[in-house]
Amino acid sequence: MKNLHNALLLKQLYQLKELGYKYTSKEPFTEDDKNLLELPNSLSFLKQQAQNCHLCSLSKSRTHVVFGEGNEQADIMFIGDAPLEIEDNESKVFLGRGGEMLTAMIENPHYKSSKYLRFYNSLQV
Q: pTM for this structure?
C-alpha cells in the first residue's frame, strides 16, 4: 500500500509539473482521496478518467480526448499512434490517409462488418 501511495504522490507531482508548478506542498492529497485508488474496470470509466487527465503535454493542446470507437466486445482491436490533428478535431480515430488505407484493408471480404473490430490510439504518459 505504501508503494501505491508513493506512486500516486509521484503522479500528482508530475501532473503539477506539466501544469507549470515549480513546487508543491509535501502532501498534495490526503489518504481520504479514495477515488485516486480506483482502477478503471470498464471502458466508460476509463474514458471518463482519460477525459479528466492532464498528465501529458498533449492534454494542453488537445480539443477532444480521442478515446476509441467500434464494438467494445470486438474480436480484433487496432491501436494507432497518438491522435493526429484531424482526429482530435473530429474526435474519431484512424482518419486521414492512413485511416483510408486501413479501411480499405478491412473491407476485404474476410471482415466486411465492423462489428468484429475496435479502434484506439495509444498514448505514452
A: 0.53
Q: Per the structure block, which three cell numbers stand in for 25?
A: 506542498
Residue 82 lies in a domain: yes
Helix (H, G, I), strand (E, B) or coil at 76: strand
Q: Is residue 115 part of a domain?
A: yes
Q: For the CA atoms of the chain, what is the radius of gyration?
A: 18
Q: Say which residue the cell 473491407 belongs to.
A: 107
Burial class of residue 73, CB neighbours in 10 A (0-12, 13-18, 19+): exposed
Does some domain include residue 85? yes
Overall domain count for the chain = 1
Q: pLDDT (tens digit, 0 to 9) for every residue of the chain, 125 residues total?
A: 678 888 888 888 888 888 877 765 556 556 666 566 567 788 888 888 888 888 777 888 888 888 888 888 888 888 888 788 888 888 888 888 888 888 887 777 665 556 667 777 776 55
Retrieve residue 87's grid coordinates: 482526429
Domain range for 120: 60-125
